Amino acid sequence: MFDVFFEYEFLQNAAITGILIGLIAPLLGVFIVVRRLSLIADALSHITLTGIAASLLLEKKVSGINNWDPVFMGMIFSVIGAVLIERLRKMYKKYEELAIPIILSGGIGLGVILISLADGFNTDLFSYLFGSVAAVSRSNMWTILFITISVIILVLLFYKELFILSFDEEHAKISGVKGRWIHLLFILMVALVIAASMQVVGILLVSALMTLPVAAAFRIAKSFKQTILLSVIFGELSVIVGLFSAYHLSVPPGGTIVMTAIVILISTIVYKKVSTLFWIKEEA
Amino acid sequence: MSEPKIVEVKNVSFRYEKEWAIEHVNFSIDKGQFLGLVGPNGSGKSTLIYLILGLIKPNKGSIRVFDESITHFNKWKEIGYVPQKANSFNTGFPASVLEVVKSGLVSRLGIFRFLKRKHTQKAIEALKIVDMEDFAKSNIGELSGGQQQRVFIARALVSDPSLLILDEPTVGVDTKHVTDLYDLLGRLNKKNGITLLMITHDIGTITEHATHVVSMNKTINFYGTSEDYNQYNAQGSLQWYREQSDQAFVTTHKEVTSDV
């Protein structure tokens, strides 16, 4: 059943990349959700699309640029978007969430202009929007592996700082944590992970992989570490089942991955309800 | 040479936008004192605590904590802070009580150092002090307001601070736990030698426990011992200050005449 994933290189690339993003997207997603920044992933994924559009436009209009990987331009735009969001959050201290729609709409606006200027693209834009099992090249896979290792090292190094900043920012300040730098580092990691996840899950659905497994883990976890562990397990499960079914149903993996995550979320909600009912009955 | 002050606030004024929240505030805390900070709502008590913690910067004046200017302060492990209304945090946060208390060790550890098993042990010991060790694995959001308050006190105590600052820790706590809290603070102050600074509305209770009181309403109305504060309250501020100045006059007069 899974044999085909070992047979073809493009499927190997998709599977390995999928497993990597199934790990790092929910890992960062936990910190995003607890800091009530769930929509930040959406804003950054849209600005990533702008980067891809810019890259494809350059490729079309400027001779000599043929072998550029649009994903890299997407990453650059995502990182710039992340820095701008941090700046705007600082500027609108009492309305920090305003930064997200500003960057999101700005990203889409510029993206639409760039796409129109190029008179549409030869490249299948559909695969960038909803993901594709065939889109990931071997070099993309190595880049994503590098991003995965870097993110894991950074999260381990700054785990206690990320925890304290997420739980109680005031307490973080009086514990001597340099919040500004950690915020910046964190949002840069998010930008890179979004750009990395985009090819498999697609721009429109990448934020789901960062939030849905976390929402499911929230229902049953007792501690923060348990939340992270369960989120990663749910993320991996969504990616593996989603990729496999996408290949066999010939549909974009973004859709199947997200639907698997939704099924997991519903299961945890039902599990929690049922277990609470049983607990009430036992107590009575 | 006299021992340096734990906290020294010199002529500090601070304003939010155009309104002055506190003006020309002067007071200091010596080692081992238990200072109660009282005043009506909006009198600037919490602002003063924020200034002492370096969370906001004064528009005028200077603040020194542990003999260091607060603007360059880095001895954070010496300060434990219990914020106002522990239940103002995100109660849906999926953290266990133990994880919350362990986060109090960040100031002691500094960057690039990991929390280890010995730190878990230390957090459990802090929970024992506030009688919450049985809840170590519970989710922080599932506890009552009073229990959360005790967890936050444990978080403040876990780094073995020399100064403990509490912002209205008795709000939303039942009478029994208020008594327990004062007993605990008394023990920490007398037995462990921890200097305490506590904002409270319980004027009647605070003088039974605190050694000193600061009463403020944007400016400081009273700064002295708890006994003096009781007298100040009983006599009314005008009468009290009149007596104080009369006494000072008599003392000075006696000194002058005896010198002659």
UniProtKB/TrEMBL annotation, chain A:
One GO-annotated biological process of the protein: response to zinc ion
Keywords: Membrane, Transmembrane, Transmembrane helix, Transport
Localization annotation: Cell membrane; Membrane
Family to which this protein belongs: Belongs to the ABC-3 integral membrane protein family.
Membrane topology: Multi-pass membrane protein
Alphabetical list of InterPro entries matching this protein: ABC_BtuC-like, ABC_TroCD
Matches recorded under SUPFAM superfamilies: ABC transporter involved in vitamin B12 uptake, BtuC
Alphabetized Gene3D superfamilies for the sequence: ABC transporter involved in vitamin B12 uptake, BtuC
Domain of life, per lineage: Bacteria
Coiled coil: none
Name of the protein in question: Zinc ABC transporter permease
TM stretches of this protein: 14-34, 39-58, 70-86, 98-121, 141-159, 180-197, 203-221, 228-247, 253-271
GO cellular component: ATP-binding cassette (ABC) transporter complex
One Pfam family of this chain: ABC-3
TrEMBL record, chain B:
InterPro entries, per database record: AAA+_ATPase, ABC_transporter-like_ATP-bd, ABC_transporter-like_CS, Metal_Ion_Import_ABC, P-loop_NTPase
The UniProt record lists the keyword Secreted: no
An MF annotation (GO) of this entry: ATP hydrolysis activity
Pfam families, per the entry: ABC_tran (PF00005)
Domain ABC transporter span(s) in chain numbering: 7-243
Keywords per UniProt: ATP-binding, Nucleotide-binding, Transport
CDD domains the UniProt entry points to: ABC_Metallic_Cations
SUPFAM superfamilies registered for this protein in UniProt: P-loop containing nucleoside triphosphate hydrolases
Family of this protein: Belongs to the ABC transporter superfamily.
Protein name: Zinc ABC transporter ATP-binding protein
